[in-house]
């Protein structure tokens, strides 16, 4: 069943903007067709298309159920800004693997210093619909690497994936941890000074002896953390 993000309006859900155009112009849905709508909360709303207006679509709610795809853990990814083609993949796969928030950051080896908000928001929505998550995740504006220590206060566990570390990942680190922060570099990696700085605030781990692309490193670490933490 097709899935859309809309807004709650009294007893109905309204699809507007690109979601309305996708339903009407691309999928060519008709009044009476059934869809699943999300309004950025914990529920899936099984709906019937009541009416197509000129600029929006009205959905009648038939049933409300808890979304089974929402993560059980609070995992936040601190991602050094990579090239655009890597960032696209990182955002979509991170959402599929249960990340709740992505915090991009800049560093000594960062070529890109900012992100296009509208493009990122569209990627987030597409990925959430693909993996059937009912709540959109937040991708913040980029921060500086030196701001990370203030951002990771209060986490149960902070893992820093560093290619020069000799400490292998240990699943015991995840025991009883609910709030987990992950720090991953970009294609340029970390300078020695930056790595030494982050090691003061995080548990530094290795993902193996092979050097991984930044998007592969994210997938590897998130797969381990999500599966082994039952997320």
Outline the structure in words.
With 231 residues, the chain is an alpha/beta fold. The protein is built from 6 helices and 13 strands. It folds into 2 domains: 3-66, Hypothetical PUA domain-like, domain 1 (Ribosomal Protein L25, Chain P), CATH 2.40.240; 74-228, 3-Layer(aba) Sandwich (Alpha/beta knot). It is 27% helix and 29% strand. It is elongated and about 60 Å long.
Concise synopsis of the structure shown:
The chain has 231 residues and is of the alpha/beta class.
Detail the topology: elements first, then pairings.
Elements: E1 3-5, E2 7-9, E3 12-16, H1 17-26, E4 34-38, E5 43-52, E6 56-66, E7 74-80, H2 84-96, E8 101-106, H3 117-130, E9 138-139, E10 143-144, H4 148-151, E11 157-161, E12 179-184, H5 192-198, E13 203-205, H6 214-228
Parallel strand pairs: 1-4, 7-8, 7-12, 8-9, 8-10, 11-12, 11-13
Antiparallel strand pairs: 2-3, 3-6, 4-5, 5-6
């Amino acid at each position: 069943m097709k899935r859309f993000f809309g807004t709650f309006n009294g007893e109905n859900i309204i699809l507007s903007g690109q979601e309305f155009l996708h339903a009407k112009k691309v999928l060519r849905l008709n009044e009476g067709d059934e869809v699943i709508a999300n309004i950025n909360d914990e529920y899936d709303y099984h709906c019937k298309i009541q009416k197509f207006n000129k600029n929006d679509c009205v959905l009648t709610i038939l049933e409300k159920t808890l979304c089974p795809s929402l993560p059980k853990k609070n995992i936040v990814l601190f991602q050094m800004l990579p090239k655009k083609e890597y960032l696209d993949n990182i955002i979509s796969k991170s959402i599929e693997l249960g990340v709740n928030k992505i915090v991009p950051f800049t560093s000594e080896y960062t070529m890109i210093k900012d992100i296009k908000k509208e493009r990122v928001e569209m990627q987030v929505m597409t990925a959430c619909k693909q993996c059937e998550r009912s709540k959109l995740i937040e991708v913040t504006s980029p921060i500086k690497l030196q701001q990370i220590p203030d951002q990771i206060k209060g986490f149960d566990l902070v893992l820093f994936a560093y290619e020069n570390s000799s400490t292998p990942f240990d699943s015991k680190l995840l025991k009883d941890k609910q709030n987990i922060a992950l720090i991953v570099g970009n294609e340029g990696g970390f300078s020695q000074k930056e790595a030494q700085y982050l090691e003061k605030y995080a548990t530094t781990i290795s993902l193996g002896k092979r050097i991984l692309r930044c998007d592969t490193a994210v997938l590897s670490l998130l797969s381990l953390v999500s599966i082994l933490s039952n997320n």
